[in-house]
Amino acid sequence: MQVEKPRRSQAERRAETRSALLRAARKLIVEKGYAETGTPDIVKAAKVTRGALYHHFDDKADLMRALVRQEAAAIATEINADTSTDQTPLDAFMAGARAYFTAMSAPGRARILLLEGPAVLGVEEMAVIDRETGGATLLEGLRHAAAHGALEDIPLEPLADLLSSSFDRAALAIANGEDRDAYERATLSLLSGILKS
Fold first, then answer.
1. Rounded to whole angstroms, how far apart are CA atoms 71 and 133?
2. 75-105 confidence digits (pLDDT tens)
3. Of 41, 57, 73, at which residue does a domain stop?
4. How many structural domains compose the chain?
5. Helix count (H) and strand count (E) of the chain?
6. Is the pTM of this model over 0.70?
7. CATH classification of the domain holding 48
């Protein structure tokens, strides 16, 4: 006797299609770059129709936007899992930096977030996405440090932007095979100069 599989709901089918499109786009963009990845390639790799792609996304740039948001949210989750308000500000920032470097070392992630994303979406939109995800985590950490007297009177949002840029540059170097330990030591030195013990 053959047992019938339970029917998937419309919402489940939509979520599976969206996930398949994001997985396919991610794989192709990492391999070939955004400019060399066409929507026909994406739908073929996802095993869906072109209509399905346009049902979920306005265009290829919208698909890229969703991919960037997904990657950025995953990084924020990883950072939050490795940091705690019970740590000293310096320890919390170093734990966050290490978590960020680890998260950004996932294959293709640095390319998506630091190269292709800004080229496709622009610096301003990437900044908005960053503030809604990992950048929010960084700014929250700075506010916590300031509230506990670990920071001089420094404007927090510009400081968060500068630290974020430093972390991004280090993550890109590490993803490209540079010495992670050297970047972690430099990060510790930088943070030690900013945060009071």
1. 10
2. 989 888 888 778 888 998 999 999 999 999 9
3. 57
4. 2
5. 11, 0
6. yes
7. 1.10.10.60
